[in-house]
Design a protein that fits this description.
alpha+beta, two-stranded antiparallel sheet, 2 helices, about 35% helix
Length: about 120
């Protein structure tokens, strides 16, 4: 038995801080904010989506609109950077290609060898 915040808790040897404090409401029942659940409030509930472990949004009729706007925003930023800046700086173009390839590789669950 351990005491945490004035409450006697059985079966817990230690407490971990929530990695993203804004996700956890805390309290005696270790509650999470809406759309989050699980250990340290890191699991996305059904009907919710998360962007970068920071922005939680409930799925709904606006989902396709936000998706299209997000895609258009990414394309606009890429187009602006690629055409305005990289036309003068070849190194920037190579850097953008590296970032794009790295982002693409990070979307796949690759199991790298430890060596």
């Amino acid at each position: 038995e351990h005491e945490h915040g004035g409450v006697l808790v059985r079966g817990w040897l230690s407490f971990l801080a929530c990695p993203v404090a804004s996700n956890c409401l805390g309290g005696q029942d270790f509650a999470c904010k809406p759309g989050r659940s699980g250990r340290l409030c890191t699991v996305t509930d059904r009907g919710w989506t998360v962007v970068g472990q920071r922005w939680w949004m409930e799925c709904g009729k606006q989902g396709p609109l936000y998706t299209i706007l997000g895609m258009l925003g990414v394309v606009a930023v890429w187009f602006t950077i690629n055409h305005l800046a990289s036309g003068q700086y070849v190194a920037l173009n190579v850097g953008l290609l590296f970032v794009q390839c790295t982002a693409l590789m990070s979307t796949y669950p690759l199991n790298w060898h430890s060596n």
